[in-house]
Design a protein that fits this description.
- By secondary structure, the chain is of the alpha/beta class.
- The chain has three domains: about 5-155 and about 285-350, 3-Layer(bba) Sandwich (FAD/NAD(P)-binding domain); about 170-280, FAD/NAD(P)-binding domain, CATH 3.50.50.60; about 355-470, Enolase-like, domain 1 (2-Layer Sandwich).
- Helices cover about 30% and strands about 25% of the residues.
- The chain has helices at about 15-25, 45-50, 55-70, 90-110, 175, 195-205, 225-235, 330-345, 375-380, 395-400, 425-440, 445-450, 460-470; strands at about 5-10, 30-35, 115-120, 120-130, 130-135, 140-150, 155, 170, 185-190, 210-215, 240-245, 245-250, 255-260, 270-275, 275-280, 280-285, 315-320, 360, 365-370, 385-390, 405-410, 415-425.
- The strands form five sheets. Strands 1, 2, 3, 4, 5, 6 and 17 form a seven-stranded mixed sheet that branches. A five-stranded parallel sheet has the order 8-15-9-10-11. The chain has a five-stranded antiparallel sheet with strand order 18-19-22-21-20, sandwiched between helices.
- Strand 12 and strand 13 (about 255-260) form a beta hairpin.
- It is globular and about 70 Å long.
Length: about 475
């Protein structure tokens, strides 16, 4: 016998669990289905982000950064540590505990908001009168019927052709988060977010890291000034990044991998490493979903086709997050989830793709919102820009972290902020001021006139806004 709900959400990642909670707050009866389990068989809602993505990677980044500070920066503060060592097993244990706390937090939120959770793999069965039948395959098979359905099934790591992940030598982000000892040599294909963050973790812990990037430019999605500053910092740290590398044959052995590639000069090269992380992007996850059973259309990349409001080709079925178009970011998925829940009850949910922030949690951190200088040039938009270095900021000096800058770009005629780009300490936190400013259509003059506490890193944003009008005060 089926269980009936106003809304069935498939997937409990950031898009799914947030959509389920918001819908329940709005008075709907809601079920949420998710297949993730812990190694001991317990439900593990939170999707890729919580289980093998955002959360565990930040835990490892934090641990490895502490290790690096202890080994290279404590002495300048007068702190002596003696011989330094790291227990990677303990580090992984802490990471797993952080993940567990987030899993349990989501289950608590479901209970608090009266969302019924089902642990299993969901698939569409058929359209029925007044809704859609969804089968749940798991320890306790169920049949659910939802008047409305939200697909929030996320994404999977993309593998190289003919080189499947074994998570021992050839690793996705999943396996890269569970390496039990620092490999002597680590190769990474792809210098995007995952490659840079995980490369930073293992470099700090003693691995010789080489990143092969097929594109001729570093971080082309970021502003050129920010990308240049970041590349300079990574080079100084010893993170070897080869641009314009065309990967050819990859051979694996029991405890090593050999990568044949052509460098930017067209020369044949061979790179041998203990392990290889492949971070060449992600693909929409519709494995086992059976969208064809209800007529949900997929595009040529396997993503669910949606309109601007996240409606699929079937009225009553919606899709959000990594499984649809747009940036594969947890916070984008959350905003779409909230917007869809509100649209279902007749409200006007809203997502502004122009103010979605992007963050890379390396050291220095990289964050931006809005358009880059190169995009504005290509679009023929007249603009003015100002930048200010952390080197001239008192708080950054006190922290001992003065790498980087803030760059503010504004419309030449109206002074409306068109983009803010940051590379430096705590960029992930500083970018929020820029997002708020852009949502309220602020001008660079507005930020320049706001009183910022002293001494703070946020003063660099103020000074960059002042620099748009060529009147920075401290540089």
């Amino acid at each position: 016998m089926s269980k009936n709900f106003d809304l069935v959400v498939i997937g409990a990642g950031p898009g799914g669990y947030i959509a389920a909670i918001r819908a329940a707050q709005l008075g709907l009866s809601v079920a949420c289905i998710d297949a993730w389990k812990t190694k001991d068989g317990k439900p593990a809602p939170g999707g890729t982000c919580t289980n093998v993505g955002c959360i565990p990677s930040k835990a490892l980044l934090q641990s490895s950064e502490h290790f690096e500070h202890a080994g290279h920066h404590f002495a300048e503060h007068g702190i002596s540590t003696g011989k330094l060592s790291i227990d990677i097993g303990k580090m992984l244990e802490r990471k797993n505990q952080v993940v567990k706390q987030n899993n349990e937090g989501i289950l608590y939120l479901f209970k608090k908001n009266k969302v019924t959770f089902f642990n299993g793999l969901a698939s569409f069965s058929k359209a029925v009168e007044g809704g859609f039948e969804v089968a749940v395959e798991g320890d306790k098979p169920e049949t659910l019927v939802g008047k409305q359905v939200i697909i929030a099934t996320g994404s999977n790591a993309r593998a190289l052709p003919n080189l499947p992940f074994d998570e021992q030598v050839v690793l996705s982000n999943d396996g890269a988060l569970d390496i039990t000892s620092a490999p002597k040599s680590l190769a990474i294909i792809g210098s995007g977010v995952i490659g840079l963050e995980l490369g930073s973790v293992w470099r700090r812990l003693g691995s010789e890291v080489t990143i092969l990037e097929g594109l001729p430019t570093f971080l082309p999605a970021a502003d050129e000034a920010v990308a240049k500053e970041a590349k300079k910092a990574f080079d100084k740290q010893g993170l070897k990044i080869e641009l314009g590398a065309k990967v050819g044959e990859v051979k694996t052995a029991k405890n090593s991998v050999t990568i044949h590639y052509t460098n930017a000069k067209g020369e044949e090269q061979t790179l041998k490493a203990d392990k290889l992380i492949v971070s060449i992007g992600r693909t929409a996850n519709t494995n086992g979903l059976k969208p064809e059973a209800v007529g949900v259309q997929l595009d040529e990349r396997g993503a669910v086709v949606v309109d601007g409001d996240c409606r699929t080709s079937v009225p009553g079925i919606w899709a959000v997050g990594d499984v649809v178009r747009g940036p594969m970011l947890a916070h984008k998925a959350e905003e779409e989830g909230v917007a869809v829940a509100e649209r279902i009850v007749g409200q006007h949910g809203h997502v502004n793709f122009g103010t979605v922030p992007y963050v890379i949690y390396t050291s220095p951190e990289i964050a931006w919102v809005g358009r880059t200088e190169q995009q504005l040039k290509a679009d023929g938009v007249k603009y003015k820009a100002g930048s200010f270095p952390f080197l001239a900021n008192g708080r950054a000096r006190a922290l001992g972290d003065t790498t980087g800058l803030v760059k503010v770009i504004a419309d030449a005629a109206t002074d409306e902020i068109l983009g803010v780009h940051i590379v430096g300490p705590q960029a992930s936190e500083l970018i929020s001021e820029a997002v708020v400013a852009m949502e309220f259509k602020a001008s660079s003059e507005d930020i320049a006139r706001i009183c910022h506490a002293h001494p703070t890193l946020s003063e660099v944003t103020k000074e960059a806004a002042l620099a748009v009008d060529k009147r920075a005060l401290n540089f």
